[in-house]
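Bench notes, bay 3.
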Amino acid sequence: MSDWHNKLDKAASGKWKKLQDLSMKSDNRICADCSGSDPKWVSANIGVFLCLKCSDIHRSLGADTSKVLSLTLDEWSESDMESVIEVGGNSYANSIYESFLPRDYSKPKPDASNEDRTKFIRSKYVLQEFLTPSLRIVASKSSFHSVDSSKSSSSFGSKNSNKSVEPGGFIGNLKVKVVQGTNLAIRDMLTSDPYVILMLGQQKAQTTVKNSNLNPVWNEELKFSVPQHFGTLKLQVYDHDYISADDIMGEAEIDLQAMITAALAYGDVDVRGNMQVGKWLKMNDNALIEDSFVNIVDGKIRQEVHLKLQNVECGEMELQLEWLSLDE
C-alpha cells in the first residue's frame, strides 16, 4: 500500500474503495475506446477506463479535455474520485459519447494503429461526432455525469433546465409495455401460468396471468413515476399456482440511464423526424440479448429491450419503454 493511500482520511478511503470496486466491473475491465484488456488508466473528468495506448492519446488532448490518471501510480484527489464514481464507468459514459455512433462504424481494436486510434478518440471526445446532436453544444471540456440529483439538467445540457424538481420529487413518467415472453421455464407438469411483476423503487405493477403458455403475449402497459434518485427497473416472472406459493421463472434488471439521459435532453423538444438518441450496451453482467437503442419515434422517446431472464434455465422477455412528461 502506498504512503499516499495510508494518508487518506476515512471519507477519502471510502471513495478510493468505491473507485477500485468500480474498476472491477466487467465493462470497466476493457478499454472504453478500443476494448483492450485490463485497463490501468482513467480519464477522471470523462469517467472512462483506458488502456495504455489510448491513455497516451487522451493525455495528448490536454488535461482540460481528458485528465488521465493511473490507478496504480498516481495520487488522486477526492474530486477526481467523485467524478469517476458519479459517471459510473465505461458503459454509462459510452451511452452518451457513442449514442449516435453509426451501427456499421468499426471502432478501433486493441491492435489498432496509433493513427486509427487517434482519429477515433478525437472524433469521439473533441469533435463529439458520435454524441447526441443536442448535447454537442456542451463544451468537450465538461464531463457528463450520471443523472442523479438536481444538477442533472446542467450536466446533460437538458432542455428542461427551466423546470425545477423538488427534492425527493419525480422527473417524469415511464410507460412500460410488456410485449411478450419466449421459451419460458416450465414450472408445472408440462407448462406454466406466467405473469410479470415490475418494480421501480417502492412502486410495483403486475400483468395478468397467461394460463398454460410458455410463449405468452401480453401487450400490457404499466406506468411508473420516475423519482429524482432513480434506480434500475426490476423485472420478475412468476408461475401462478392456486395451491402453493407462486414459483419464480426468472428475473432481470433494466438500466434506465440511457432512456432518462435522452429524456432530459429531448423531453420538451419538438423534434421532427425519427432519430437515435441513446443506447444501453449489451455487457457480460447485464441481461441484454442485444444492444438496446433509445429512439425518437413520432415525437416520443422510446426504447425496445430484449432480455434473457437470469437465474433460470431458459426464457426471454421483450419490453417497450416510453417516456412521458409528468402531466401525461
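Next record in the batch:
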Amino acid sequence: MHLANNTTVEKFNLVIGLGHSAYKIPSSFFSLKRLTHINLKNCVVHLQSTSFRFERLTSLCFHNVNITNKMLICFISCCPILKSLTLIGEEKHFVGSDQYSDLVQLFQLLPLIEHLEMNCCPVKCFASGVIPQSLANKLVHLRALVLHALSFGKEDELRFVILLVTSSPNLKKIKMEMNCSPTEAMSQTAMNLFELQDYSYVKLDHLDELEITNFGDMKPGMDFLKLILAKSSMLKKVRVVINNNISVSDEVKMLRDVLWNPCASVGAQIKFERA
C-alpha cells in the first residue's frame, strides 16, 4: 500500500520463502502504473478486476506463482509492450479449464516478445487443445528461446517446441534442457511426427547458437536436432550435452547420425559432450 502511493516505482522484485508461498499479492500492487519489470516468486496472484494496465511493462517473470490460466491470459493482455516473459512452475501453479488453455491465444498477446522462457508445466496447461504446426501471426521479434525439462517423448510438448521454432523466423539462440528418462514411454505419434509433417517452408536464417542439455537418444530429439541443422544457414555454435545414461557406443552412433545429415551452415561448430 505504501508503494502504491509512489508513482516512480519501475522495478518490482518479490521473492517469498517456500514456507510462505500462500502469500497473496494485494490489489494495491496493480496501482503501480509505471512498472517496467515484475519478478514474482512463490506467491499467489488473483485478479479481482481487469481494469489495470501496465502500459510500460517490458519484463514479466512468474516463478512458482499460483495463478489460473484465465487470469494469466488477462494479466498478459494488460501488458501491451511485453518483451520478456518467464513462466516457471509446477502443474499446481497453473490451473484452469481447457477453455483458457490455448497456446494460440497466449502468443497472440505477445507480438513484441523478444525473450521467452518456460518449463514443461505451463506448456502442459496451455497445450490441452489442438496445437497447430505454426502460428499465423509469427513471433518476428523473438530472439531467445529458453525451455526447461521438456520431453520429446510426449506429443504435446514436442508439438509445442515445433510450434515456437517454426513460428519464430528471427531466432538467434535456442537453449533447451531435456527431460531424459530411460523408462519414459513414447507415443507413436511423437516417434514419427517429423515424418508426418512438411517442414520445407521453415527457415532459421538468423539462428547462430543452439544448446541442448540432458540430451537422450530418443528419435524425436535426434529428428529435431537434424531439422535445426538443416534449416539454419548462419549457425555457429551447437552444444549438445548428453545424458550420462547414454552408452559410449550409442553416443558415437548419435554423433555419426548427426554428421551424416545435411547442415545448412558450413561454419557450424558441433560439439557433443558429457554432463
